């Protein structure tokens, strides 16, 4: 009996191609994610089928789906690929070479505020670093689809059996009103929203959904008139006296050029008046790097970003950040 008989081979590149095709249901999309040609993906999957001695895809279906044999392989493939990745990463770290490539996805306000300090801290241990930003749903999907290695989001509904979710920190909701609105006295958000339109973040944002729960909780029934994906147009309207808004300290710091024309208004106390940040990884992958990023994120926020924000906005509540 030969060693090959005892240990049937599995080409990990071919297995990764097969898994990506199954996840995207498209040879073309799989090729885009893997950074190869469609022909290369097709050849890798075909080689895997020859290696296993059985067809794995139902090529008559559109979109592409695995057949019964393919579904069996797909159930086992994730753990095998994750283990292979962990072994490779450990070998690189043991050799002193560090991680070859790291792709991080973050929500926009995190990338613009904590992101630069975080990048500076991890550059020494990563040969090539990419950082993308976007809305939480898109960033979470990119992680699941293997377009990202690590994601930093405000909330996630991804499958906990596939994705690990570790708490980083939370920040309080804060209300902003125009400085021209009752500038001589401290104003509550409840009073301001009776006179000014409420300018909201788009419902496509996870944070906006959390804010809506808080708004209903404190008894505000303001019709939806203005909503935006980005912080800048919201603050621009508030600064010009067109309305008020609920936001967060990181968003204020992201668009701090509007601070001279904004005032913090009092918000009612509520456990719902916070957004929480989480670091996401696929189960079994990037475990050590996740620990490093968690440590650096909290240190950067606690020692650099939060003090700078408090210096610029002294009216922030005492619990603006909880680590």
The strand count comes to 13
Q: Spatial order of the strands in the main sheet?
A: 4-3-5-12-6-13
Fraction in beta strands: 15-25%
Oligomer: single chain
What is the 3D form? elongated
Describe this structure in words.
There is one protein chain. It is built from 13 helices and 13 strands. Helix 10 links the parallel strand 8 (199-201) and strand 9 (226-228). Helices cover 46% and strands 20% of the residues. With 323 residues, the chain is α/β, with parallel strands linked by helices. Mean pLDDT is 86; it is low at 1-7 and 93-97. The chain starts with a helix and ends with a strand.
Quick overview:
The chain has 323 residues and is an alpha/beta fold. It has helices at residues 3-6, 12-24, 27-34, 38-52, 68-94, 108-113, 115-122, 136-144, 189-195, 206-217, 231-239, 249-254, 287-312; strands at residues 57-58, 65-66, 99-107, 126-134, 150-153, 163-172, 174-178, 199-201, 226-228, 245-247, 262-265, 274-282, 321-322.
Task: Give a topology summary.
Layout: H1 3-6, H2 12-24, H3 27-34, H4 38-52, E1 57-58, E2 65-66, H5 68-94, E3 99-107, H6 108-113, H7 115-122, E4 126-134, H8 136-144, E5 150-153, E6 163-172, E7 174-178, H9 189-195, E8 199-201, H10 206-217, E9 226-228, H11 231-239, E10 245-247, H12 249-254, E11 262-265, E12 274-282, H13 287-312, E13 321-322
Parallel strand pairs: 3-4, 3-5, 8-9
Antiparallel strand pairs: 1-2, 5-12, 6-12, 6-13, 7-10, 7-11
Helix pairs in contact: 2-3, 2-4, 2-5, 3-4, 7-13
